[in-house]
Amino acid sequence: MNKRQVYVVDGARSPFLKARGKRGVFSASDLAVHAGRSLLIRQPFSASDLDEVIMGCVMPEPDEVNIARIIALRLGCGDYVPAWTVQRNCASGMQAIDAARLKIMSGESDLVLAGGTEAMSRAPLQLRPEMVDWLAAWWRARSLGGKLSLLKKMKLGFLAPVITLLKGLSDPIVGLSMGQTAENLAHRFHITRTEMDSFAVASHQKVEAAVEKKWLDEIVPIISNTGQIYANDDGVRGDSTVEKLGTLRSVFDKIYGLVTAGNSAQVTDGAAMLLLASDDAVKKYKLPVLGTIDDVQWSALAPEQMGLGPAYAIPPLLKRNQLGIDDIDAWEINEAFATQVQANLLALNDDDFCKQALGLDAALGNIAEDKLNREGGAIAIGHPVGASGARIVLHLLESMKRNQEKQGVAAICIGGGQGGAVLLSGGKS
Amino acid sequence: MSEHTMWKLDIDEAQIGWLHFDVPDSSANTLSQQALVELDQIMDVVSNSNLHGLIICSDKKKDFIVGADIGEFTQVTNTEEAEAFIQSAHITFKKIENLSVPTVAMIHGHCLGGGLELALACDYRIIDESAKLGFPEVFLGIFPGFGGSVRSIELVGVSAAMTMMLSGRTFVAKQAKRMGLADVMVPFRHLHHAAVHTIEHAAKIRAKKTSFSEKLMRSFVGRKLVASILRKKTKKLANPKHYPAPFALIDLWEELGGNREKMFAGEVKAVAKLILLPEAQNLVRLFFLQERLKSLGKGEPCTLNHIHVIGAGMMGGDIASWCVLQGLKVTLQDQSAEVVAAAVKRAAVLFDKKLYTPRARQEAMDRLIPDLRGDGVQQADIVLEAIIENLEIKQGLYQSIEPKMKAGAILATNTSGIPIDALAEKLAQPQRLVGIHFFNPVAKMKLVEIVAGKTTDDATLHIANAFVTRIRRLPLPVKSSPGFLVNRILMPYLMEAIQMVEEGIKPEAVDQAALDFGMPMGPITLADRVGLDICLAVANDLSEISSDKVPTYLSQWVQEGRLGLKSGEGFYRYKQGRALKSKNIHDLKYHKDVPNRLILRIANEATRCLREEIVADEDLLDAGMVFGTGFAPFRGGVMKYIATEGKEKISEKLEYLEQEYGARFKKDDGWS
């Protein structure tokens, strides 16, 4: 395999729109197309020049099978650009970037559109398995007698829909919701409710400040068919306070739990798209460079503690690249839950944990607060599961560019017990 | 037996005859006299052969048959000739109808006018999903004369058939199938199989079932009732004095709808009469003028995929959505996100109306790309600005975008008043600036003025013409001078109308005079619609070449914000977009001079424009006025009107008006 440098040329994301009960205005493919077309019109090449399109998406709608292909065709890539969709739960967007990276490194592709999209508000309601079986029997039954006897077997409970969103946010192997795995971490690392809520408030405030300073330039405003403009992430609450958040009830472990809707990531719709290129493509089209993707690490751990995924992925990534924590100028750790991010920081700075769980000689070190999620995170912005992995990579590169920084790490925890981390270098054109 | 050049009969192993229609040296099939003669001969051959069935199809890639040969309409000089021609078509189509074996019209693409009438003479119509069927004859001043009026009513019922024939609309495959116009609709891959299958399973005699309500409508009393309803409806859209054809059709059916043979015969006489009327001849001339304008966009093919529009207001936004509807990618830029959003909303409404599937609408919306940062400039084939009418602001915009434009791209302006040469002053490459002036509303007004400056080069003009043709509008080259052609000729007409209101003539009366002449809208209504502020601005633009003074009351109104329709009040008051006009018939009465005052100002200005060579010839001027303002099409245009009335007579009228009303009626030097 001929290892080649992998450049990030440019990227754009849609505003992240909070799921509020009704189906959102935009489908997952709509969001990706809106972001993608704005990204493509500012390039010196056309959509049909891409070698392929790779998208992460966890819950496409039934008419979005291989959503990457649908997005590619809608973006005008034409008939001859292949496309595929990847899924590694909450890191699907990061997985898409990794897949693109490997294709470019191997020399198979030179110019790839990679990213992630999700419309969690449109996660389907399904019929229960009992209802499906009953319907199958009903359609098969020909005689009146057959149908009548089926009517007797029908129970009202059959009609209750399955809320696939809740299923998706739960782990079937260990029987815990994602929020409950966060409670596990709070217990293990003695994180208090107040600490979680403070972290959450800080996230909102950082986003609000960034919006004012126009530091979230990667967002492209999108317009619905009814002429409604969506220009900003709409779940941000700059007026949040620890007091207000303190009044919220725990939502995953009722009564006794600490994790609430306020200190968890929001359920959101959104898309993030990046253009990755090889050296040859950069030269051919004279492309500016936002940065490079130097390395990616995937690690696995106990599903009950899935939130610690970053703690498992970051050390091997740094070691392989002969870097220490202090060598990293900027960090993004996806804020699935406030307590989960805090647990990772505590774990990496704890000798016992690093020795026993990670097999290291000592604690890895402290990730400085002012280097982490500087413009806020998923608690305020939202966590469309397929897109977040791509959003944090894009945002970190933009943030590093603004601060002229060299090295960055974006990490994410993954439902099911995994963690992903990406090592990024800031670019010069 | 003579050589057949257009029709070819093949007989397959199943003894089914395939009658292929392929007019040589033409991309589309039309039914000329020669085509019908050949068809007649072939039908004799077919009747004597032992076929199991006959399938009539077209070898053209895109369409079945787009109609009769319109050029031949202008060659008939008397009623006998016309009747003979039409009658022979009737006889030929009867031969198809009377064939003892099943006949199938196998239709893809456009099947219009005479082509549809031929298809109706067959037993079955098998169409594919691309098929579009219609009777556009009414746009040429006639109605279906090859038996189509009789057969369409028989097949789909009087309501659907009359809608088709009176509106001239084209119906897509799904609609045609639903109406019963087509028997079977299939994807193209099954068109052949479906045609053969139909013949093999056809009943010997096809029972024509008529519903009870349909039978009632066709009765003597029923026809009288339905005809009066149809007349009332049609009068709302067309004046019977100006457009006799639809009313002749209604009359024909009312009188003879109960007797098939009599109605056939009546059709021949009625259509022969209509063809020779000046109305039809004028409309046919306009048809050819359209073709002439369309040909301006032909020649070297250009890549036109991506248009960048700057200025998303009423004009810019609608130009953008029209371009998208015609298959182009458009990036739409404006300083205000709200203005772009409003344009997107209007586009969604347009696509909803004009596109028939959710995917088609989605695909169109995907190609309309809001672009607040102007990123689209670098990739666009054409950058078109429709921003505020201000020289400095436009020049500033050009300076910022010109360096970003790609090689070979052109810069177009939708300006209606600023001279192209002034706009070109600060450009590094002034040869690529051209005026492409659209009219409002873009979806309805076909005309686009192409304005070359002194420096505009041929390559740029070619791209401009090709672009306008590509988006199915009509390019009209005009000289760069104030008001170009259309606004310049229209202004004196509007000024005269405004003057009349100042004199105390009721606005309703002024409008009525214009409507009675055949204008689609009265000048006062037009002024309100366009916006009194715009009218004022255009009048100011033209002030250097016109002696008309804007009445002070108008400037005052504009200052007060009384702008017409958009502000809720102008000359008329508006409620929910509708003008509140007086219904009192006395308010609609006008002095006999009023129409002449209005129309002769147009005539005079048009003559002046010709003399100043604003446009190359009289035909082009007529095309401009008809397609840019809807000037009484049945009159053929301004210059045709003058020729019909007589130059002498109009001259005299102008002299009279000059005496009575003032120097503004002074005959231009071009009259001599």
- Overall geometric form of chain B: globular
What average pLDDT do the residues of chain B reach?
Answer: 93
How would you characterize the largest beta sheet of chain A? Answer: 10 strands, mixed
SS content category of chain B: alpha/beta
Total beta strand runs of chain B: 19
Quaternary arrangement of the chains shown?
heterodimer
Report, as a whole number of angstroms, the end-to-end distance of chain A.
26 Å
Q: What is the number of helical segments of chain B per DSSP (H or I, 4+ residues)? A: 27
Beta-strand share of residues of chain A: 15-25%
Task: Tell me the radius of gyration of chain B.
Answer: 27 Å
Largest sheet of chain B: 8 strands, mixed
Structural class of chain A: alpha+beta
Unreliable runs of chain A: none
Percent of residues in β-strands of chain B: 5-15%
How confident overall, as mean pLDDT of chain A?
A: 96
What form of chain A results from the Cα inertia axes? Answer: globular
Spatial separation of the terminal alpha carbons of chain B = 57 Å
Count of helical stretches of chain A: 15
The counted number of beta strands of chain A is 16
| Biggest sheet, spatial arrangement of strands of chain B | 12-11-10-13-14-15-16-17
Helical coverage of chain B, percent range? 40-55%
How would you explain this protein's 3D organization?
The complex is a heterodimer of chains A (429) and B (672). Chain A has 15 helices and 16 strands. With 429 residues, chain A is an alpha+beta fold. In chain A, α1 crosses α2 (67-74), α3 packs across α15 and α7 (178-189) packs across α12 (338-348). Chain A starts with 6 loop residues before the first strand and ends with a strand. Chain B has an eight-stranded mixed β-sheet with strand order 12-11-10-13-14-15-16-17. In chain B, α2 (79-97) packs antiparallel against α11, α4 packs across α5 and α13 crosses α14 (337-354). The mean pLDDT of chain B is 93. The A-B interface holds A 33, 37-38, 41-42, 44, 46, 74-76, 221-229, 231 and B 329, 331, 337-338, 340-342, 344-345, 348, 362-363, 365-367, 369-373, 375-376, 378-379.
